[in-house]
Amino acid sequence: MAALIGREREMAAINEVLDEVADGVGRVVALAGEAGVGKSRLAMTLLDMAARRGFRGLRGTACAYQSDLSYAPVVEALRPLIRAAAEPTDLGRLFGGMSTAPALGDAGLERTRLFEAIASLVADAAEQQPVVMLVDDVHWADPSSLDVLHYLGRAAAHTKCLIVFTYRPSEASAAVRAMLVSLRRGGWLVEVPVLPLSPVGVAAMVAELLGDSPPTPVLELLTDKSRGVALFVKELTLALREGGQLFRSAGRWVLGPDAAGAVPTSVVELFEERVDSLDATDRAVLEAVSVCADAATADVLGAVCSAIDLPGSLTRLRTFLIEDVADGEVLYRTVHPLLAEAVYARLTPSARQPYHAAAADAIARRSPVAVSRLAHHVGLAGTAIEPARALETLAAGAEHAVARRAGDEGLQHARAALKLAKRLGRVDLVPQLLTWLAESASFTGRTDEAVAAWWDAAVDATDPHERARCLMRLAQAETDAGQLVEAQDHLIQAADVLGDLDATELRIEIAQIALVLHTRRDELPAVLAEVAELERIGACSGHPKALALARYGRLELTRYGVGTVEESEVDESIAEITALADAELVVTLHLISIGTALGRGEHAAVVRRVALAIERARTANLPMLEVLPTAFCALAQFQAGAWDSALALADRALALGHRFNVSRGISLALAARAMVLLHRGDVAEAESCLAEASANYRDRRLGRLLDVIAAQAALARDDRATAARLAPTTGPYAMPVLHLQVRADLGDDVLDELDKLGFPYAAAVAGWRRGLFTQAADALDSLGLPFDAAACQLDRANVVAATDPDTAIAAATRALAVFDDLDAVAKSAQARRLLRRLGARPKPKDRPAGQLSAREAEVASLVAQGLSNAAVAKQLFLSPRTVTTHLEKIYRRLGLKSRQELARYIRSSNT
Ligand SMILES: Nc1ncnc2c1ncn2[C@@H]1O[C@H](COP(=O)(O)OP(=O)(O)O)[C@@H](O)[C@H]1O
Ligand SMILES: [Mg+2]
Q: Which ligand 1 atom sits closest to the C-alpha of 234?
């Protein structure tokens, strides 16, 4: 059995009780908690603990389908105490294989004699060895079993006997409650509530299930949906994984876009029996609450369940429902959100329809009408609502959703409305509905569906403006999907359709997309042309967006060594653009400037703009827009020697990217992760990230970044041929050092080009390649690029090793300190080799390679003992996340791959 999670408080209480019982003071422990919360698990741990203290354990379980079998759980628990007796006995009637004492003829007396016999059976056993008797799930026990338990509980007071039972308070019958009252009054009862797990507990449990600790978004979803109920945590986790909505990317767990979806059947089954026990009217009210969800006010419920005595039903349902107050009105919810989902899942779509229709009617009667809630119910009410009215509501719902950028909602309503419009012959509505469908598909990252819908919309559009707009948006969707050739075709078509028409805004947008497109394809002349076009439009119209875009275009051009742009100009443009209130555009422009600053090695500017972009995405409530800036920031942090932070940011970008299907962001994040892994010596893992990235998304520019990293990986494996094949030979010098690292054959012409770029990073790199090491290293240092500076120092040391060994030793030593600090294993090894060759003794690392810090050693030893990450976390008072980080470092330092290898390593190093 896996380790018990949490429950320290409960176990402490139980331990105290065991002390008392061991001293001859019998007790009754009641473990109370809702279905799946972890009562049985806790009870089993109690039995284990008692067994270790020398108790004899007995165990029976009441079960829902045997609640009519008298004494069933008690008989099950006591059977091990029975040895077939030769003498006739009062217990003979309960247990097979015994002879039965003659009947007394008085039923009451007979019962007392039976109970007394059971009590002495237990007391006799407890004389020889303390006894703990567990009856699980007594809310299902038959009344006679409850009577026996009560009798035993009272009789145990002066014996070494502990009676334990578990029950669900919300399902406790009057008989169970009466037993509790009586035991409580007698003072023998110790009540231990079993509460849902804390978020930390949930995290530990998920880590246990998945083998390592998943990132925050996964935990947030699971905590939110399960509300800490252990069984739900387990079932939801496994269902997500099996349903393909929880999967590995770059060796991490991430969620897919539909992760918030359906309830697992096991969860539905758990509630089933309880829901079935309700009578038809109460069940109808519960169903109405589940279907109406956010609209389940007394009003709406009254309308939905018009033929029912609602107050009476709500009172009878009090263990199923809670009252919430929203907007000054009482709202009914199920005690656990999954209960509503389970009840809903049990209903067939046609059984749901009348509830949805009634909810829609109730919502429509109110003012102001809640458009989105109304459309939700109308969409699911099917034929229960008049189709023309449904179409109107769904169209309004789609429009409203698009305005709020609620992509999933818009998608659903637009799809349903389109179907209806076609059925009702309302072709006039189709083009508009298609655009809402396409917008929503873009918001949710369903680029294929967006491309298809924009295409249909463009075909349907009759007005040239509208047609051009659809073609332009089609091109944008294609750009997002990486279909850059098609995108370019459609942009040209859009411009053709516009011809001489007056359409400044549209022309600006077309130029904007073209700008992005051409930069991704690295087409310098086309970028120049687009910038010129924007400047022309800006000059004619004075349109601020055109001017700002043109300025950004110029900024982009500096990457190719064309012109210069002052930081203050960028800021001005940002201010101008920000005033335009188009979050997507603002983030796009930030991205361009982030990319440029990254290529120029301007770390502070990257970080500042990333923060601006992310803030903008957040205020607009568009998390998908955070993906690319976050991934860029990961690259920047790599460059700046903050490698742990780079990994964390890459993880975050990956998680968000998968959630919102931002494929370019996913690939960029994978590239950042690969970069750090590679420099830390994990070549295989880095290459698998690169393969995942390439399969996922590639355009020219991103492709080159991936190739550079792949070339470096090949070099790390000493595969010069592959490196030479992959090393890019042309293109702007984004992240020039990367390029230079893989191209040893740079001629003066390339260095001259670097000079011409005219920014400090390029100048430093050119100097480095020309052998001006000291100057270059200083420059790189002052740019905040410690890894590059150290690499430059190491090159210097190599060059002067023969002529000036003292200088070489000093330079290599300084470089080594940086490499060690970053865990840059390959470079560390190079530096150490040189130092040894020069006769210097390279200072051992604070933690020499292969050796672990004190904390890491602790973690390693516990893991080697077979403890799970969660268990290690608990023992060392760390978060599971931290344990994972430690483990990663441990594996890296020791060059190991698995827990088994680690166990072997620890065993061999201890002997
Ligand atoms: N504290 C815990 N640590 C680890 N696993 C737990 C814990 N509590 C519950 N579980 C697991 O969750 C599931 C449901 O718990 P269970 O004890 O059967 O719930 P209950 O008896 O309250 O319905 C089981 O698979 C159990 O092993
Ligand atoms: Mg149980």
A: 12
The CA 284 to ligand 2 mean position distance, Å, reads 28
Query: Residue 728 in contact with residue 740, Cβ under 8 Å?
Result: no
Does residue 693 have its Cβ closer than 6 Å to ligand 1? no
What does the DSSP assignment read for 603-647? HHHHHHHHHHHHHHHHHTT-GGGGHHHHHHHHHHHHHTT-HHHHH
Helices (H), 57-170: 72-78, 107-128, 143-155
Q: Is the CB of 250 under 6 A from ligand 1?
A: no
Q: Is the CB of 134 inside a 6 Å radius of any atom of ligand 1?
A: no
Query: Would you say the CB of residue 245 lies under 6 angstroms from ligand 1?
Result: no
d(CA 619, CA 615): 6
> Given the CA of residue 1, which atom of ligand 1 is nearest to it?
27
Q: Which ligand is nearest to the CA of 46?
A: 1
Question: Looking up tokens 């014996």, which residue turns up?
Answer: 159
Count of H helices and E strands in the chain? 45, 9
Q: How far is the CA of 57 from the centre of ligand 2 (A)?
A: 17
The pLDDT of residue 733: 46
Name the residue with higher pLDDT: 898 or 497.
Answer: 497
Distance CA 406, CA 404 (A): 5
Tokens (6 digits) for 484: 């850059």
pLDDT 10s digits, 356-410: 998 898 888 877 888 998 999 999 998 889 999 999 999 999 999 998 888 889 9
CATH number for 8-193 (one of 3.40.640.10, 3.40.50.300, 2.40.50.1070, 3.90.1150.10): it is: 3.40.50.300
What is the reported pLDDT for 699?
78
**pLDDT digits over 233-242, tens only?**
999 999 899 8
Note whether 146 and 176 are within 8 A (CB). yes
CATH number attached to the domain at 854-910 = 1.10.10.10
Of ligand 1's listed atoms, the one at least distance from the Cα of 7 is: 1
Q: Give the chain's mean pLDDT.
A: 86
Task: For the chain, give every domain's residue range.
Answer: 8-193, 199-258, 647-792+800-820, 854-910
User: What is the full DSSP assignment across 229-249?
Assistant: -HHHHHHHHHHHHHTTSEEEE
Q: How confident is the model at residue 96 (pLDDT cuts 50, 70, 90)?
A: low
The ligand 1 atom at the shortest distance from the C-alpha of residue 166 is 21
- The pLDDT tens digits for 492-527 are 999 999 988 888 889 999 998 998 888 888 788 898
Instruction: Tell me the range of 68-77, 196-205, 246-255 where mean pLDDT is highest.
Output: 196-205
Please work out whether the CB of residue 234 comes within 6 Å of at least one atom of ligand 1.
Answer: yes
What's the pLDDT score for residue 729? 55
Cβ(35) – ligand 1 distance below 6 Å: yes
